[in-house]
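Hi team, as promised in this morning's meeting, here are the two structures we talked about. I've kept the exact order from the run log so nobody has to guess. The first one is mostly here for context; it's the second one we should focus on when we meet again. Sequence first, then the predicted structure tokens.
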Amino acid sequence: MPSIKDFKIIIKPIITEKSSLGAEFNQITFQVNKTSNKKEIKTAIENIFKVKVKKVNTSIVKGKLKAFRGSLGKRSDYKKAFVTLEEGQTIDLNAGV
């Protein structure tokens, strides 16, 4: 049974052309809480989606500088988690659409 804490760790899946290339290697990309570690991410994914996780790789993505109406601003930094699933395990991210 997933807890409230699990849903605070996993923010959203990242669905881009580059992240979809990881599907060949049974890999899914998520945006996660910046303070979470690999063990917390692994248990959250296993509790929410009921799958077995092989490994988790993380990276901090630095926010870009962007101009909006002549004033300069900065997007927030965020943490990405590349979750590799065990063989035969899948997560259907399009199920709720």
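And here is the second protein, the one for discussion:
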Amino acid sequence: MKQKYFIDSHKAVTFLVILGLMAWFKQWDNPTAWVYLALHGTYGILWLLKSRVFPDKQWEEDKGLFYGLYIWAGLSLYWIAPFIIASQNVQAPAWLLGLSVSLYTFGIFLHYTADMQKYVQLKYNPGQLINDGLMARTRNTNYFGELLIYLGFSILALHWIPLAVIALYLVVIWFPNMYKKDKSLSRYPGFEEYRRKSKLFIPFLF
């Protein structure tokens, strides 16, 4: 089975899992839980649309069932934040709710528009280095957008564990993928100049 099937199915049920946690812990009057549901649940739905309209080729590779279960287990770490919110009746302050929505909004824009740019350019101009648009100054704009998205979710829990999950993903998956991508792009003429003019991950910083 393709990796995308495991990833997409997990994204699809996230909304139901969060709703189930709210029901189990009777969080119907908790604004923080509702905001979390709106953000993370919407992200899952948008992921499914993205997977259908402009899919990422790296998720098309066939993998076995056990690897798929490994993917599911890893992605389920992101459910720790809504569990904490629901089980501990976390009430985030109003300013944090606003910050969460802002981080999510910027993250969604950067993540999905960067993926769309990559999809379109690879489809209609294959074999060329993508070094313009959202990729002009940051080589992994999509990952930076995803970081903002998950930060928006995690800060609502007012707990360190969801932030540690993000750090784990950065170290174990995201950074290795970024360096692997750089190694692959190094075969293109002009990559060294592009690397000097751009950042790996965070605009203007790193």
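Starting points for discussion:
The chain has eight helices and no strands.
The chain has a mean pLDDT of 94.
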